[in-house]
Design a protein that fits this description.
The protein is an alpha/beta fold. It folds into 2 domains: 2-217, 3-Layer(aba) Sandwich (Rossmann fold); 221-297, Alpha-Beta Plaits (2-Layer Sandwich). The protein has 10 helices and 14 strands. The strands form 3 sheets. Strands 6-7-8-3-9-10 form a 6-stranded mixed sheet, sandwiched between helices. A 4-stranded antiparallel sheet has the order 2-1-4-5, covered by helices on one side. Helix 5 links the parallel strand 7 and strand 8 (180-185). The mean pLDDT is 92. The structure holds adenosine-5'-diphosphate and magnesium ion. Residues 12, 15, 17, 35, 37-43 line the site of adenosine-5'-diphosphate.
Length: 300
């Protein structure tokens, strides 16, 4: 399995929703498409699933145009629509038939899928009685029905309460073992729990294609935090003049200090502070949270 998105563009009237966007995805990967509301995630996902056509560029699956390879893809829309009066089993039968599967096949595969998504006991219950997490799991079952090699999910957990969210994240982790996944979210910590790779999108443009480890390594390079008491804040003027100190940001009693080289400079900075009898409350290598990194990337 190989998905290639090549320079796709999509505009709605004069609003460019996705602009010159390219990415590749290989079998076994689980990629998170991350961006704030309005970034273009749903539009991109609809082009990957062949729900809408790009104005420019193309989407290829195993070298073939997506329109000819649609059967290989399972799609979970951002707002799946079910008939509330149908049972889970009826819903899957109905949707399976819509996507061209034979009733004999469905009779065999539906119980297996219901078990996989943890709904085997609810198979004969009406969808109208389902919780958000159950509906979303039914949506995933629907997307898996024809055994696609790639499953594309648009914000599968964003609208769920904590319990539903947990159910669906666990299910996605399980599916991930044997299916390639692309999912979108505007909540970074959700992607962090599931995805190996992140692609960030802002105003329709790709701004990052990276891993968590890489993001952390890059953003935290040469920063430390020192917390001291109020009377020691005057040491800042001394520290600012040190040749290896690049920048100091002061928040209350905390100093976030960027140095030339964390390995060589952390000890001599500490020594300098001690020589000046700074009463240190806390001394640590500064680590941005994923949320901070995300905001730096997306909001700038
Ligand atoms: P996301 O899923 O990241 O929130 P969308 O892909 O839904 O973003 O939307 C990207 C931009 O395109 C938004 O500004 C949105 O208003 C606009 N857009 C999306 N779909 C349509 C449409 N059918 N008609 C007009 N504008 C649209
Ligand atoms: Mg969306």
């Amino acid at each position: 399995m190989k998905l290639e998105i090549k320079h796709v563009k999509k505009a709605f009237k004069d609003k460019i929703a996705v602009n010159d966007f390219s990415m590749e995805l290989n079998a076994g990967e689980c990629v998170g498409l991350i961006g704030p509301n309005g970034a273009g995630k749903s539009t991109l996902i609809k082009m990957i699933s062949d729900m809408i056509n790009p104005d420019e560029g193309e989407v290829l699956l195993n070298g073939k145009k997506i329109t000819q390879a649609k059967r290989e893809i399972g799609y979970l829309p951002q707002y799946p629509n079910f008939y509330h009066w149908m049972t889970a089993r009826e819903t899957l039968t109905f949707m399976g038939q819509l996507s061209g599967l034979k009733i004999e096949e469905l009779t065999k595969s539906i119980p297996v899928i219901l078990t996989k998504v943890g709904l085997s006991d609810a198979g004969n219950s009406k969808v109208g009685t389902f919780s958000g997490g159950m509906k979303q799991r039914l949506g995933i079952a629907q997307a898996l029905l024809h055994k696609p090699s790639l499953i594309v999910m648009d914000e599968p957990v964003s609208a769920l309460d904590p319990i539903g969210r947990r159910e669906v994240i666990n299910l996605i982790r399980d599916i991930k073992l044997d299916t390639t996944i692309v999912l979108s979210t505007h909540i970074l910590s959700d992607a962090e729990e599931i995805c190996d790779r992140f692609i960030m999108i802002r105003n329709g443009i790709k701004i990052e294609d990276t891993t968590i480890a890489e993001l952390f390594a890059r953003s935290n390079k040469n920063k430390l935090s020192i917390e001291c008491t109020a009377k020691d804040l005057k040491w800042i003027d001394v520290a600012k003049k040190l040749p290896y100190v690049k920048e100091i940001e002061v928040t209350g009693h905390r100093l976030d200090i960027e140095v030339e080289n964390i390995q060589t400079d952390k000890n001599r900075l500490l020594e300098n502070a001690l020589v000046h009898e700074v009463d240190i409350v806390k001394f640590e290598i500064h680590t941005d949270t994923l949320e901070e990194i995300f905001l730096q990337l997306v909001v700038k």
